Amino acid sequence: MDHAQTPGGLGITVGYFRDAEALTQWRNDAEHRAAQERGRAEWYRSYTLHVAKVERSSGFTSVDADGSPA
């Protein structure tokens, strides 16, 4: 999972799953269901959920002169 949040509190969390079945298992997990209920009761006034398929992904990591990640 990746998460980012603005100083004002707007946040985004991205979860990655190997396939649709893994997503279904996570969605139906009892511990996750309890966390959802707690989040709705204690933390969130609203949220939006998007489920999407990644068609392609790429990245880049800069390195310092000694070869370590910058």
TrEMBL record:
Official protein name in the record: Antibiotic biosynthesis monooxygenase
Lineage summary: Bacteria, Bacillati, Actinomycetota, Actinomycetes, Kitasatosporales
